[in-house]
Amino acid sequence: MSDLYALDFDGVLCDSCGESSLSALKAAKIRWPDLFKGSDSAMEQWIIDQMHVVRPVVETGYENLLLVRLLLEIQIPSIRKSSVAAGLTIEGILENWSKLKPVIMEDWNENRDALIDLFGKVRDEWLEKDLSSWIGANRFYPGIADALKFASSKLYIVTTKQGRFADALLRELAGVAIPSDRIYGLGTGPKVEVLKLLQSQPEHKGLKLHFVEDRLATLKNVIKEPELDGWSLYLGNWGYNTQKEREEAASIPRIHVLELSDFSKKLK
């Protein structure tokens, strides 16, 4: 029996945290210029460093902007507009992001679509002005590019990243061309719906179905859908997740916690 792999992008194929953090900082300075008047390069470097720590909470790219601003408010009490920033720690963000996010969106009177558009525009501008430095702020995990190139399985990308950015990185950084109709990016619907779509296509009948993700919450959403019981589920332990999440995943019978070396072998 042949295999179909639905692959998340950020945290499974590509470590994009460097690029997404820098893009979020640029976008945050455009969105909230007054707040950054009190920051300096040391403060901005601290924010970028912390973004690598809190990255596991991000589901969709625009949340990086919220995290940049929240980190700034944690450090500079005088600019706080959020009711949750006082006394908030990095650990607190990691533990409670799903509860914090709607509160700060309301406190700051922000609009999700507007933040998505701004984040996309900042990335597009960087990509157009200086493709090599944009590409260079990303890296594919070791062995991934070859695994994709020589895969015998049928591959789909299922990501909350905007599809054009995933496509550019696959082509320019990994040297891999995946047809655009096999890249399901932001705006194509929740991942559970994409998986339902993929399994319903006549040409996929009889294929073994595999979904590789680095977010435990996403895998748990799949488990809640009885019609997706046919998918084998994997949590990539090299991606944007925490030790606590990896331990929880290991206790769930449906989920296989996957090593990077084993992942590359599976695709071949």
Structure description:
This protein has about 270 residues and is an alpha/beta fold. It has two domains: about 5-15 and about 140-265, Rossmann fold (3-Layer(aba) Sandwich), CATH 3.40.50; about 15-130, no CATH class. About 50% of the residues lie in helices and about 10% in strands. It contains twelve helices and eight strands. The chain has helices spanning about 15-30, 40-55, 65-75, 90-105, 110-130, 130-135, 145-150, 165-170, 190-200, 215-225, 245-250, 260-265; strands spanning about 5, 15, 140, 155-160, 185, 210-215, 230-235, 255-260. The strands form two sheets. Strands 5-4-1-6-7-8 form a six-stranded parallel β-sheet, sandwiched between helices. A two-stranded antiparallel sheet has the order 2-3. Helix 1 (about 15-30) packs across helix 3 (about 65-75) and helix 2 (about 40-55) crosses helix 3 (about 65-75). The radius of gyration is 19 Å and the shape is globular.
Overall residue-averaged pLDDT value: 96
Total count of strands: 8
Structural class by helix and strand composition: alpha/beta
Report how far apart the termini are. 14 Å
Low-confidence stretches: none
- Determine the number of helices (DSSP H or I, runs of at least 4 residues): 12
Shape call: globular
Q: Using the coordinates above, name the CATH class of the largest domain.
A: Alpha Beta
Give the C-alpha Rg. 19 Å
Give the % helix.
Answer: 40-55%
Q: What is the number of independent domains?
A: 2
Instruction: Trace the largest sheet across and list its strands.
Output: 5-4-1-6-7-8
CATH fourth-tier homologous superfamily of the largest domain: HAD superfamily/HAD-like
